[in-house]
Each structure stands twice: as C-alpha cells, then as structure tokens.
Design goal:
The chain contains 4 helices and 47 strands. The protein is mainly beta. The radius of gyration is 32 Å and the shape is globular. Residues 284-304, 391-434 are annotated as: Disordered.
Length: 708
C-alpha cells in the first residue's frame, strides 16, 4: 500500500510537470489574442518614420525630420523606422515595408510595421526635390540596429510589399529596433541622365534686386544644338510654378550668359529660381538658388555695397561673421542678419560704424550662444546716413559638435559635373581659402560611402573669396553611377563638400546588379534569388588581428551557371582608404588610385574561379569605423551586345570582424528573448514544485525504510 502511494505521488508530480510544460507551449496557440502585442503606443522618443538628407548631413543624429526634408537628384537620403513593442507580450515575426510615390518635385514614403500578433501601424514622410527632376529611387542599403549596440545589414528588399522580416521583438524600450534605409534619388540634374548633347546649365546668383524686381542669370552651353532657355521661379524651393519668357541660344554658343528680369514681386520676400535649357536632345535644369527682395524702405542708387564672406572661428557655440563693404559720401552702419536652421534671418548683430568713401572695408562680428552641430544662415547689411541700403548674399555654416575646430579651415562647395560622356566627366567645385594657402581636389568612387579615389591636388592660393576649380576624370564605365565631392585643405584644417553623383551615358543598355553582403547575423534573413547569368560571391576572413598586423583577406569568386559564353570580362575592386593593399592571387593587371583591375577575358559555360586579395587595416582605423569593400565584374554575353555588371559590396565594421561580435550578438539576442518570455518562468516554477515533491517523498521513503 505504501509503495502504491509513493508511486502515485511520483506519477502525480510528473503528470503535473508535464501538464505545466505542455500548457506553457500550447497557451500561445490556444489563446493568441490574450496577449496581443502593440507597437509605438503612447509617448515615444522617436516618430515611427523619420527622414534626413544623408548627403548633406552624414552621421548626424540631430538632423532627422519627422515630416519632410529637402534633397536634390543625386543625393542620398536616410529613412529611420522606429519599432518599439509597447505591450507586455512578444511581437512575433515582425516585418517592415516601405512604399514610395515618386514625382518630379516630391517623393512620398509610407511605412508599414506588421506582426503575426499585432495590429499594423503606418506613418509617412516626404522628400521635397530642390535640385533636378526626380524620376526614380535606388535602394542602397538597409541596416537594423537594436538597443544593445548590435547591427545587421539586410539583403532583403524593404521597398517591396513584403518588406523585410526582422524577427521577434521583445517588449520594452531596450529591445526596440531602428531600421535605417539609405536611398539614392535618380533623375535629371544638370547634365545627368541624358544624351551627350543635352545643354549644360549653371544657375548664377540673382542681381539688381529691388523691392519688386530682380534679374535672374545663368550660363548655358548649347552643345551644338539650338537651345531655348528660361527660368522657373516661385515662393518655395519645391514649387517653382512661374516661368519667364524663353531666350534662344544658338547651337555654336558655349558659356552663354542669359539674363531675364522678373517684376511684380512682393517686398521683403524670399524667392527661389533655377535656369532651364532645352534642345532636341533633352532638357537640363540647373540648381535652385534664392534671393530676398528689399523692403519698401530700402534705397541704394549708388555704389554702396556689402559682400558677405565665409564665417570663421567656428566652434560648437560661436562663430565670427565677416564681410567687405564699400561706402559713398556718407558714413554707414554695418551689421549681420542671421538665424538657425532656415533663411528667415530674424536675428541682428550689433551695428558697426564705417566711415564714408571706404573700399573693401573688412567688418567682423562674433556671435555666441549658438547650438552645437547646427546650421546657421547669415548675410551682411550696410546702411548709410542717406538711407541707402544694401544686403549681401546669404551664406551658411555649421557649428562643431566637439568644440575642437579653429574655424579657419577653407570652405568648399561641390558643384554639378559637366561634359559627361560615355567614359569621362568634368568634376567641379568652389573653394574659399579663408586667407591661407589651400589645396583642393576631388574624392570619387562608385559607392557614396566609399570615395576611395582622389584626383590630383590643385593650388588654390590664399585669398578670401570663392574660386571655382575642376578636374577631368576618364576611364569611366558606361552606365555606371559615380559619386564625388570636393575637398579643400590648408594649415588651418580640412573641409569636404556634399556628395553628388552622375551616371555615365551609354549607347547600349547596361544592366547593373548590386548586392550587399551580410556581415552581422543578429537576425536570420531569407537569401535573395540570384537570376543573373554570372553568380559573384564576396567573402571576407580575418587572417591576423594582432595590434601590429590586423590583416583581412577578401575572396571574390564567380561561376557561369548558363550555357552562354561570356566575353570581355574584367574584375574591378575598389579598395577603401581604411585598407592597405598587400597582395593578390592572381596579380592585378592594373593598380592605380585605390582600384585593382583583373582582366578575365572569356568565361565559358560552367567555368568558375576566384581572386584572393589580402589587405591590412590602416593604423588609424578603430572599432567603429565602417569599411566598404566593392567588387564588380563587367562582361558581355552571346545573347546580347549589352554590357552587364554584377557588383557586390561588403559593408562592415572593424570591431565586428576583430571580436567575432556577430555570434555574441546572436546568443545575447536569443537569451534576451528567452528570459523575457513568461513560459520560461512557468517552466521554472513547475520544476521547483517537482523537485520539492521529490525531496519530500524521498524523505518519507527513508523514514519508512528505517521503521521497517
């Protein structure tokens, strides 16, 4: 009888444990709506969808906008999707998808966040096109970051209706995810995207600005075809809804100055404009400029003038504003109008007195109490005792985010390219040396985040006014989009302009397939199908990560999985500036300015091969530095005369390669999900009850045996 009772007790305990465990697994399926997940409920640190202009403000955490941002054709914009599970339940199989609506003057993005056990939430932002005609967008990369410092590059198409699956998301702000999507804006901007004979256009600053009129100006290159030129203008940079009459520029004219006056304007109002040129080969739109009309009391009927110069001594909370003024037969007051973040210029500095009949009189005024890492706009104003007044052009600067800049480095601006042909282009820029000997050049490449090639440096002198410079680059590949920016350096520091792009024209179609290689494995993703004829794989491996060597080996392999013979094949490898090229097997046929070229020739059906490239990290590279390694194979197949390009991109950080952070992140992410699951605690309680019963039963058995 005693044995039967003991057996019953053990069976009961085991049965209770079995029921508890099974019910723990079964409950989510029996009552799936009992613990419904929810996203972004209540007050949140970020909007569900944000947008920023990555070209103008790379790596800027304070430059996100919840509603809209301005950008031009060729710019890269970033979208940030915030995913916060604000319920107490695990959000299962979370997907993020972004839909886009592209028009010439605006791009709208709509995001959807879904989960198997949560309602869908949506949000939207807009990109106002300020330069060129937008025609399409191109996905660059998608990175998912979590609250623990882990990140993962996705190959899935977040811009498709199905989106990307970022896995399960646990409850709590620390478990939130941020999906960052980089997108290139494609279309017509200056000489981009069209035939080689389209007209060239450069919009110039407006002149003869009065309270009700102004003269709009531009330079036009007809490129051998009779060209009509006019200006689009309006009250907003994204709504140029007024057109001037057109002017004819003859086919043989280049760098032709066109000036058209507009009138009937409102006083003290800001207007935006750009030049447009059209011939039989197509239409080109210049960049958008702006001006502000005088107020009704402004009067300047002589030689009184103000020339706004670049700001200097820029720190995190202060800057020095400068200008040159010319006065007439009366003494004058000079001051600066400025504002943060926009061009309203609603702040005034103190006035400085300047004597009569002065020429190029330098005026400098310091302003402080500025916000760090912020853009400010300013212009110089001069008014004499006869009530004549003149305002200089509006310029801008950005305060430092660290406070360690001396502010006297040169000021450089990237200008639109010109004379883009099937294998070359002219890169253009403008630089103000700020009174110190300055050199200027261009950084360029095939990826906006990896401008690994430099042009020759040019001596720009030591003046205090902006001067233009340009460089012709050749040996380009037809159909490929190139990125570039102007750079200037003096003994006072270095400045880099925004990144712009252009696409090399081609008489034949070029099919470019781009793949970004997964490095971080914090979330499993479904591999994309590979439909192209030539399969290209890029792999990386760490060889020696001691502090001395820090070597990385890249292997580019290909396989022709078709029955076609591929010809004229060659491999181009762009080595980023963070890496030093050591060796390759086989040796490259050409090596110059950060690019390796391997001539493959003919690739027969079924043929496969690989190229081993050894590199070493530069000593200045630290754990958080991003390394972008680009390889592309160009070829033709027997079914078409078109050139095809397969491009693969390895986008990773040194710290993740050196420390094996991917596997650690995976384990940590899994354990966070396990310990945050109520089923774990239910199992733990059942085990505690089971072992307690076992302990009590065993004690009774021992006492019973002792009595017997």
């Amino acid at each position: 009888m005693t044995k039967a009772i003991k057996k019953l007790g053990r069976n009961t305990a085991l049965g209770f444990l079995t029921v508890a465990v099974l019910s723990g697994y079964a409950m989510p399926f029996i009552a799936p709506t009992a613990f419904a997940a929810d996203f972004n409920g209540g007050s949140q640190p970020y909007a569900t969808l944000r947008v920023s202009n990555y070209t103008e403000n790379p790596n800027c955490d304070s430059c996100w906008n919840d509603n809209a941002v301005g950008a031009g054709v060729g710019d890269t914009i970033s979208l940030g999707v915030f995913v916060h599970n604000t319920s107490s339940e695990l959000a299962e199989d979370v997907t993020v998808s972004i839909d886009s609506d592209v028009s010439s003057g605006e791009i709208r993005f709509d995001v959807e966040i879904k989960a198997d056990n949560a309602s869908t939430i949506t949000d939207s932002v807009k990109v106002n096109i300020t330069d060129g005609d937008a025609q399409d967008i191109d996905h660059v990369t998608t990175i998912v970051r979590d609250g623990f410092g882990n990140s993962k590059s996705f190959t899935g198409d977040v811009l498709s209706s199905s989106g990307i699956n970022i896995g399960n998301v646990n409850a709590g702000l620390s478990n939130s995810r941020i999906v960052v999507v980089r997108i290139d804006i494609k279309g017509d901007s200056d000489n981009n995207g069209g035939g080689e004979d389209k007209p060239g256009v450069t919009t110039l600053p407006a002149t003869n600005i009065e309270d009700d009129r102004a003269t709009l100006r531009c330079d036009v290159d007809a490129n051998g075809d009779d060209t009509d030129v006019w200006f689009e203008w309006g009250d907003y940079d994204n709504q140029l809804d007024e057109d001037t009459n057109d002017v004819r520029v003859d086919a043989d004219e280049s760098n032709k100055r066109v000036e058209i006056e507009i009138n009937g304007l409102d006083s003290d109002n800001r207007y935006y404009f750009r030049c447009v040129a059209e011939n039989s080969e197509g239409t080109t739109r210049g960049s958008v400029r702006d001006f502000r009309t005088d107020n009704g009391d402004d009067n300047n009927d002589g030689n009184l003038s103000a020339t706004t110069l670049s700001a200097t001594n820029i720190d995190k909370d202060s800057a020095k504003l400068r200008c040159d003024v010319d006065t007439e037969d009366a003494d004058a007051d000079v001051w600066f109008e400025y504002s943060k973040g926009d061009k309203d210029l609603n702040e005034d500095t103190k006035k400085v007195s300047v004597n009569d009949n002065e020429t190029d009189e330098r005026v400098e005024t310091s302003i402080d109490d500025l916000d760090e890492d912020s853009r400010y706009y300013f212009r110089c104003v001069v008014e004499d005792d006869d009530n004549n007044i003149d305002r200089g052009t509006t310029r801008d600067f950005r305060t430092s985010d660290t406070g360690n800049t001396n502010g006297n480095e040169p000021t450089v601006v990237t200008l639109s390219p010109s004379n883009v042909t099937s294998n070359s282009a002219t890169l253009r820029g403008s630089v103000d040396p700020n009174d110190d000997d300055t050199e200027a050049w261009f950084e360029w490449g095939v990826v906006s985040s990896n401008l690994n090639r430099d042009t020759s440096k040019q001596d720009m002198g030591s003046g205090d006014r902006s001067i233009d410079f340009d460089t012709r680059v050749s040996g380009l590949t037809a159909g490929v989009t190139y990125y570039y920016r102007a750079v200037a350096e003096s003994s006072e520091g270095i400045d880099r302009g925004v990144v712009k792009s252009f696409t090399v024209s081609s008489g034949t179609t070029t099919n470019v397939v781009t793949r970004f290689i997964d490095i971080f494995r914090t979330v499993e993703v479904e591999e994309e199908p590979q439909d192209e004829a030539l399969i290209v794989i890029l792999d990386s491996d760490t060889l020696n990560f001691s502090d001395r060597d820090r070597e990385v080996r890249y292997i580019v392999s290909y396989e022709n999985r078709t029955d076609n013979t591929l010809t004229d094949a060659l491999l181009r490898v762009d080595v980023p500036r963070e890496l030093e090229f050591l060796d390759a097997d086989p040796n490259p046929d050409d090596e110059s300015r950060g690019q390796l070229v391997f001539e493959i020739g003919t690739i027969r059906p079924g043929e496969q091969d690989e190229f081993v490239i050894d590199t070493a990290l530069e000593s200045s590279v630290d754990d958080n530095d991003e390394i972008v390694f680009v390889a592309q194979i160009e070829y033709k197949d027997s079914d078409s005369i078109d050139k095809k390009i397969v491009r693969v991109i390895d986008n990773s950080r040194y710290g993740d390669k050196a420390n094996g952070g991917a596997f650690t992140a995976l384990v940590a992410d899994s354990l966070r999900g396990f310990f945050g699951n109520p089923i774990f605690w239910l199992i733990l309680l059942a085990l505690l009850i089971y072992f307690t019963i076992r302990y009590v039963t065993a004690s009774r058995d021992k006492r019973s045996e002792a009595l017997v």
